[in-house]
Amino acid sequence: MSSPQFSVAEIHEAIAATRPDEVCLVHRDRRLTWAEVTDRTRRLANHLVASGLGCHTERSELQGHESGQDHLAIYLHNGNEYLEAMLGSFKARVAPFNVNYRYVAEELQYLLTDSRATAIVVHSQFTPTLAEVLPDLPNLRVILQVADESGLPLLPGAVWYEDALTDASGDRPAVEWSPDDLYILYTGGTTGMPKGVLWRNADANIECFGGSRAETLDGVVAEATGGLQALLAPPFMHGAGHWMSFRTWNTGGTVFIQYHTDHLDPDDIWSTIEREHLNFLLIVGDAFGRPLLDQLDRHTYDLSSLTVILSGGAALSAPLKEQFLQQLPTVMIVDGLGSSEAGGQLSQVSAGAGATTGTFPISPGNHVLSDDLTRELAAGDPELGWLAKSGRLALGYLGDAAKTARTYPVIDGQRYAVPGDRARLRDDGILELHGRDSVTITSGGEKIFAEEVEAAVKAHPSVYDCVVAGRPSERWGNEVVAIVRIREGYEVDDEALRAEAERHIARYKLPKAFVYVPEVLRSPSGKADYRWAKQTAADAAG
Fold it and tell me: Is the whole model's pTM more than 0.90, yes or no?
């Protein structure tokens, strides 16, 4: 059976043609129908094409780490413009990519240089940072500015986003959409410099956006039966948010965006679900889960429409899963595991009792490879290996052939993606995820996975949040340090936290020290900032 080869642009337009007047995208007072989203994204595409942007070298002439297209940076908070920018880029044969809006000027300059961006869509509030680096970005020639509450004026050389759409044609762009055109996803950079992962958009549509595997476009459209009404709480600047947005559209459903997009507002989230009768909520781990649960303790909402809460990008700890199930007993809690390099990989469903953290049923296309990356490990093999994926994978890292070869090894003729997660496959087909190798702490000759220790410490009811890092130790080489935020109104000491952690992990993995902070620094997507954690641990040592 051949693999389906449809571009994101043609799939969205085909689905839109079957439901032009149904609601496609909702943000604040905007309720855009499928026909309106089609019109607006065509106009954006035509503006980009008229500006000379598009595809200049076809995929067949390029290696995996190369791009033959123009690249559009999306430097926005969540909003209809973010998803329009992605879809409009696909329709112009321009490759969209995500920008972390928390970057300072130096980081932004690195990203826009590394990405070879020729166009950018930017919220007004971020233009002062962009203005600092513009003189060093000679290739950035198209700037579309989205007005916001900041009221900042138009950047010199920029065009207002809405004016660009008004002045452009709403006709289908005069380009041939290709399944080979790129979708670029920049890694978060919480452990190292961000890298741009290159996906064929047809492969991303299957592996990242959960699209149909039907062999014909009619078959794809037939599966888009609607019904999914989804609120995607995380920032779209990280993969989980826009992956689930396009997954919702692939079902013919409606994407909802909360009112407040510059911070997590639990009342805003729950009120939107109540008001709009939504059935799906995307969050990212405990950093989202804890504030949302605290709000349910303070206020009552009618959440009877909600059927699924998906945590993507970070695991939701077992204690918080159990609390969600107590508060919302008819809701399914799903942990989704994936990566920029491999797309979606594994999922675990919790309903009723017995919630766990970090275990997933193995599924086709997922594997555990040996430590030396020479063979696939069978179920029950005691060796701690690498979680890997086969099948439709990303092409590689933009401009980095060496890193591409390391992350996508070929073993016995099979190409794998190995993003860096350590795992063990049990006899019963359950995969135990131990965490990212990049945040592993070697202490006393033993490898200790930060995320495993974090889950153990967070099992104590007094812990609001926790991140774990290593710091130099004369005795151990490195020692494990837990950086902890305590819940308001609770008191706890080191020994109580250590005793709780010992119930879940071996003694050699226990934190040697605890550092108490008013807030654990995370990205807006909820992912831990391990560089900050390592520095905090070192500073606490004096």
Answer: no
